[in-house]
Amino acid sequence: MPPPDPIADSVRRRAVLAKLPRISRLDGTAIRVLLVDDEDTLTTLVSLALSYEGWLVDVAHTGQDALRAYRANRPDVIILDIMLPDTDGLSVLRHLRDNGSSTPTLFLTARDSVDDRIIGLTAGGDDYMTKPFNLEELVARLRGLLRRAVQAAPDDGSRLVVGDLSLDETSYQVRRGETDIMLTTTEFDLLRYFMRNPMRVLSRAQILDEVWNYDFAGRASIVDLYVSYLRKKIDADRAPMLQTVRGVGYLLRAAE
To answer: Fewer CB atoms near the end CB (10 Å): N or C, the chain?
Structure first.
């Protein structure tokens, strides 16, 4: 039997990945992935595979580097090895979850026992793959995590949907389930910003800059006031969608 041809494998892999429809954030920008593993060969291969998707990949080789990269770039999805040189991936994810992160996370590890899988998922992980693994399957799993976590897609050029909440940018119609919701112009602009960035923690400074286009004389409390207005309208007597991330800001996600 002839030895494996790495070039042929690379070509085949690229052809398979190219058949999948491209996905991106709702604002059209690239999906951002945080890849945490101390094996250079693995991070190189995974980064290459994800680049075929048009995604941006930030690589960290230690737990501390992972936390710094997370704070700097706020990824859409995380690939996290359990065994790291300075700590373990479980501790890294617990730290993120304790600080309000709900970013979907896939554990990547050499361990293969049922107990390890349970521990990983209990720590807040969303999926689990063991080494060695198939790159095409990894991409498929990540795409699935992104779809389930965001639960959002523009039905056409003007409509945003997150869970049972919809917003039409042309008609200015907002609905939660079968109920129409009346919003002021500022409330509408604020909700639109959240819906364009579902499952992303948005700071008060970011919201002020995007919705009000200036810092409102430094009064970040205006954001808290308008978020409270929105909650009374879209979350009243329903499962909440607008979440507070203490010390950071707010995020919008589909109701559970």
So the answer is: N
Is-contact 60 34, C-beta < 8 A? Answer: yes
Residue 163, Ramachandran bin (φ over 0: left; ψ between -120 and 50: alpha; else beta): left
Query: Locate tokens 């286009």: which residue?
Result: 213
- Can you tell me whether residue 56 is helix, strand or coil? strand
- For residues 4-26, average pLDDT: 56
- List all residues 6 or more positions away from 252 whose beta carbon is below 8 Å from its beta carbon: 162, 194, 195, 197, 198, 199, 241, 242, 243
Strands 77-81 and 56-60: unpaired
Residue with tokens 């969303």, as numbered in its chain: 126
Angular region, 172: left φ>0, alpha ψ -120 to 50, beta rest: left
- Identify whether 4 is preceded by a cis peptide bond (ω within 30 of 0): no
Could you write out the DSSP letters of every residue in 137-190?
A: HHHHHHHHHHHHHH-B--SSSSEEEETTEEEETTT--EEETTEEE---HHHHHH
Residues 63 and 65: their CA atoms lie apart, in Å, by 5
Q: What is the mean pLDDT of residues 142-168?
A: 72
* pLDDT, tens only, 27-45: 778 899 999 999 999 999 9
